[in-house]
Amino acid sequence: MTKNKTVLHQMTATEIVKAIGSGETTCEAVARACLERIAEREPEVQAWQYLDPDGVVRQAQALDKSGKRGPLTGVPCGVKDIIDTADMPTEYGTPIHKGHRPQRDAACVALTRKAGGVIMGKTVTTEFANVHPGKTRNPFDASRTPGGSSSGSGAAVGADMVPLALGTQTTGSTTRPASFCGAFGYRPTWGDLRLNGVMEAAGTLDSLGIIARSIEDVSLYRDVLLGIEPQPLAESVAAPRIGFCRTHNWNRIEPHTQKLLEDAAERLARAGARVEDVELPQDFVALEDAHRWISGFEMSRNLTWEIENHWNEISEEFRNGRLTDGLACTYEQYVSMRALMHHCRKLLLPVLDHYDVLLTPSAPGEAPPLWNPVPNPWVYMVWTTMHVPSLTLPVFKGPNGLPVGAQIVGRHYDDRRLFALSRWIDQRLK
Amino acid sequence: MTKNKTVLHQMTATEIVKAIGSGETTCEAVARACLERIAEREPEVQAWQYLDPDGVVRQAQALDKSGKRGPLTGVPCGVKDIIDTADMPTEYGTPIHKGHRPQRDAACVALTRKAGGVIMGKTVTTEFANVHPGKTRNPFDASRTPGGSSSGSGAAVGADMVPLALGTQTTGSTTRPASFCGAFGYRPTWGDLRLNGVMEAAGTLDSLGIIARSIEDVSLYRDVLLGIEPQPLAESVAAPRIGFCRTHNWNRIEPHTQKLLEDAAERLARAGARVEDVELPQDFVALEDAHRWISGFEMSRNLTWEIENHWNEISEEFRNGRLTDGLACTYEQYVSMRALMHHCRKLLLPVLDHYDVLLTPSAPGEAPPLWNPVPNPWVYMVWTTMHVPSLTLPVFKGPNGLPVGAQIVGRHYDDRRLFALSRWIDQRLK
Fold first, then answer.
1. Do the Cβ atoms of A200 and B204 come within 8 Å?
2. Which CATH architecture has domain B5-226?
3. What are phi and psi of B404, to 5 degrees?
4. B22: helix, coil or strand?
5. pLDDT tens digits, residue range B76-133?
6. Which of A294, A332, A427, B281 is deepest in the core (most CB within 10 A)?
7. Is A173 labeled as catalytic in the residue annotation?
8. Considering chain B, what is the average pLDDT of its residues?
9. Residue in A150, A151, A153, A173 annotated catalytic
10. Chain A: nearest CA to B239, how far in angstroms?
């Protein structure tokens, strides 16, 4: 007896693993349910850069046949198309690399397969994981952006096509689509998850990202990507000390979102959390510039082959924006910006020590109309530069009934504690 | 009129650029001179994993024809075979990836070409830039190792086949072959040189490396790889304050090398430098362990695809060594080792502030016989974990007349100053 397919495609990874483990369903049934959901939603959402339904079914059947059980057995996963796959193209969101086929899986893909995950296909990325958009639309309103750069990963999870998807983040590329697509979005402590086989955008800032349907799933997938035995989340935690951090750019957050966050802070306080306002030191204001110069400097070097050989096939947006900025940036300027980042990280340490987590915006508001740039990257980017782990919770609705996330920020290397505390918060805000 | 070919293949990059710029020689003449040298020495040295002499001549002819002049125009460069090249195979030192052809150049290769460099071919790497050796032999004694993992890059420069070669370093993979092959070996401040298209071994430690024939060439090539306008080295510098750092493992340095370094410290003092003994804090002793666990943890995740699909094609040395260690390492252990590294970096800052540079061993002694493991990785590895820039100077001869280097360590982000001060030291030790 397998569960009804309309249910299967909405299950979390943790539920899928359990249902397959108990014989209640099969890898194939789950894969087929997700493929059916994709067939239904993809014409509108366009989350997939590459999808081979027959290949997916074969992967699932092989898993059923082998009988092997791993921590992700039978869980369909989407993979952002800047991450190498041995059996699927990897095109980095650009016509320059159309049809490119790597010969091996990136570390994160191989770890997913090792755990029994089913690689569903490649999800749409913006051009080189920068700003020029792909074809994907917001699953809750097709006239709006899904957010980038992990657009397809955000939309695929948001549209119930897959329970898990891999993204990356250099600015807000996981946080933002998670917030716009009503999903959990996790950016790990910088440096924890390996990037072999993932396109380097700006190594000083890059990390993998996970987009998921539950905090348990985020935690499970993180353990898989760390290559360690999955550990359960702490079942009960004390009410946390929460620093409510509006950031310097609070006036660039939409009033409706400001209200949602302020209400959330009050509700959490009423639920027993010790909530206090946190102001970041004035030096943090300059981090927006620091991020622009560091990422521009690094991207414009990393993409030298494309710049030299395919300049005219790069979008005007990227050419005239980050690449031109980056090429004009001097080494001295770049180093001074890295030093500023380092300095701010030190200033943040006592703040992180004083609270268990910080509550802060995930995005300025709902997803804007398609092809409009998303304002105020500061809300994601400040935490990216700080290298702290961040989890976006899909707990709010904006004025049009569309998802808006709340971002919870934790301490370096203590991502598991961030998850446990975020679950406490999530349960109280839902 | 072109210079005599036996001279051309021994010129530095800086001299080549000047001679081509003044019309004294051509890119083609230089390339042919190096190819002739390779033809002569390669049967014994075996530095090259891939070499296409006709392709090299075509590159050089195209440069001559274009008349364009860049900072490296006509300079033959070797490229370690874990670095992607669009027009040559990239095999990572393993039969698993035999014939693998990337579709783009790594950032560092594209930057080399942009500057006018001639990509001569791919140099031999140990397996996955770890310890299992390739076919290369020491150019000064074919019964001895060239050092790894950038074995071919070290040997190719040491054998006068090319003036410049790209390597990488995770432990001592540039410092060691430079020391054994009588070349300058440079590991930059960690994070400065982009790694897009370079195999990640252990991202927390990895960096590019440059093997060269002069300090001016190292400085020139670094600027090219930074994607900035090359700047000349400071012509004259004051006699530096030098910290002579024997490290905790001085007793694992061969007595002959100990004597060479102690004599060098005395000679530098007599030449006007303020030389003082530096003892590293006791906490540094644990860095050897830290390096082993961090690199093992990261490598064993990065190579998941190979481990899962080609375990038996991986050398026993690597399987039973770093990979097995790494797979057994817990996340908690890994994180505590990263914390230790970070802690030691803080302890090192006042030491770096107190001196202009540190003088320390590059290797325990001369190159050992082929296939023998190289003892005492601590001498390179401690500086790799500290993320400081390091330059190995080919200033010593061991008891058998073979090269032994002296390692000069500088301050983070101040690599250019390290070069200027190292030149002062090099001139006085030669």
1. no
2. Alpha-Beta Complex (3.90)
3. -140, 135
4. coil
5. 999 999 999 999 999 999 999 999 999 999 999 999 999 999 999 999 999 999 999 9
6. A294
7. yes
8. 96
9. A173
10. 25
Those residues whose C-beta lies under 8 Å from the C-beta of residue A20, and which sit 6 or more positions away, are: A26, A27, A30, A73, A74
Does B191 sit within 8 Å of A338, measured CB to CB? Answer: yes
Asked if the Cβ–Cβ distance from B304 to A114 is below 8 Å, we say yes
Q: CB A105 to CB B304 under 8 A?
A: yes
Q: H helices then E strands: how many in chain A?
A: 16, 11
**Distance, CA of A73 to CA of A67 (rounded, Å):** 10
Closest residue by Cα to residue B210 from B128, B127, B153, B151: B153
- Confirm or reject contact between A313 and chain B (CB < 8 A): no
- Between A and B, how many CB-CB pairs are < 8 A? 110
Q: B148-186: buried (b, 16+ CB within 10 Å) or exposed (e) per residue?
A: bbbbbbbbbbbbbbbbbbbbbbbbbbbbbbbbbbbbbbb
Give catalytic status of residue B135 as yes or no: no
**A149 in catalytic set:** yes
Give pLDDT, residue A44: 98
Q: Is A24 on the interface with B (CB under 8 A)?
A: no
A111 touches B at CB < 8 Å: yes
Give helix B13-21 / helix B27-45 axis angle, nearest 10°: 150
Which of A63, A54, A131, A43 shows the shortest CA–CA distance to A87?
A54
Tell me if chain B has a CB within 8 Å of the CB of A203: yes
Question: Which B residues 388-427 touch A at CB under 8 Å?
Answer: 413
ipTM over 0.90: yes
A339-345 long-range contacts, CB within 8 A, separation 24+: A339/B413, A340/A283, A340/A286, A340/A287, A340/A290, A341/A204, A341/A287, A341/A290, A341/A294, A341/A385, A341/A386, A343/A283, A344/A281, A344/A283, A344/A284, A344/A287, A344/A385, A344/A386, A345/A386, A345/A387
Q: What is the pLDDT of residues A383-428, one digit of tens each?
A: 999 999 999 999 999 999 999 999 999 999 999 999 999 999 999 9
pLDDT tens-digit readout, B2-24: 455 458 999 999 999 999 999 99
- The token pair at A19 is 């249902």
Instruction: Give B143-155 pLDDT, tens digit per residue.
Output: 999 999 999 999 9
Task: Please tell me if residue B166 touches chain A, with a CB cutoff of 8 Å.
Answer: no
Residue A254's nearest CA partner among A174, A168, A362 is A362
Give backbone dihedrals phi and psi of B133, rounded to 5 degrees, phi first: -75, 155
| List of residues 6+ apart from A2 with CB closer than 8 A | A8, A24, A25, A26, A29
Cα dihedral A321→A324→A329→A335 (10° resolution): 60
